[in-house]
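Hi everyone, sorry if this is the wrong subforum. Our group has a chain we'd like a structural model of before ordering constructs, and none of us has done structure prediction before. Sequence below.
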Amino acid sequence: MGDPTAAWTSMGQAEVARFGGRVPRPLDGGRELPLAWARSGPGERTPVLAIPGGPGLASVLPYRGLRRAAVRRGLDLIMVEHRGVGLSRHDSTGADLTVDDVTSTAAADDLAAVLDAAGVPRAIVYGTSYGSYLAQVFAIRHPDRIAAMVLDSPGLDAGDIAEVRAHLRALFWDGHHPATARCAALVRELAAAGEDPLDLSGVVQHVYEFAGTAPLERLLEARLRGRGRRSWARIAGLGRAEVESPTGQPMVFEPDLVRPIGQSELGFDAPPDGHVLDPQRLFARAPAAEPRTPPYDVAAELDHFGWPVAVVSGDRDLRTPRPVAERVTELLPDAVLVPIAAHGHSALDTHRLAALNVAHVMEAGAHRALPKLAGRLAALPKRGPSALLGPLMRAGIALDTLGS
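Answer:
Right subforum, don't worry. Here is the predicted structure as tokens:
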């Protein structure tokens, strides 16, 4: 068998050669980064600059299907391979970039350089998860390049952590919401029985976001009776693999060089507070990174964003939950909240038709109509590799807990 990384690299290079290009970006010490980007195809409409999450997600290979779907909708989608990741990982000599080369401000300026190279004066900027943070940094540094903006599953800064914890615990520890009260009671029983808190938190997050309340309740009940071991182990391992891997998956997810952005600017390095349900337990297992000072107080800058903004938020998002999305919406001068029912984190990854439709409405200049369209957006069929995880999870839990 051949080297899969070499094959993926070749595929990515072919994608860039056919649908994008390289932009030379200066680095310290006279070095140069040949920054990669890809495009669904120029047309008559305002392009959409789509920024994935992570930090560490590649753009060129993982989102080929999204760009093909954009073509079918007549959307002109531009995506930039984040510096330090995938096809933008190496300088012109073939050496890896350094951690110091990879900052949010440099990555934001890369976006502007690609728009320059593509001859695009202004774009609709669509950022999801970490990409929403980078979109905001880009807006602070290059406000003249933005026609409109979509912040999908947005985050602001390290201050989000308190809201994330409070939301998670209200649902699955305190049981304040009728739909999750039974799950919360089961979580408390499992915690009292000595269940690994890292695994317990990971299972709650992944099953609820991707599959919903009923499968989660079934798995928690089975776990109390010593059943469902296979599903429990597999689901608990999802988050661990993403955080604990030192280099990730080449050409898809490469977190090592971008890790300081997440840890210092998004608060991933905040210590756990000792409670059973705490997402920081997982991030505490990631390799350490040199601390940095965030370049901006992003929340304080939002009132200067003078363009239409759609804030997309899934009602089952536990990573950047609804209270964070509501706070972002309130801070923006011309923003609407687009609540997506039965949906978790990042429509760009798990509900791509909804994401493309939101971009389409923004391109048409009709962002005020989006809240009324939220039900129709949620009802669209879910597409994309990540969208398969929910059905697979529900089926696996059902099979693994038969007789429980």
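For your construct planning: Strands lie at 20-26, 32-39, 48-51, 77-80, 123-128, 146-152, 309-314, 335-340. The chain has a mean pLDDT of 93.
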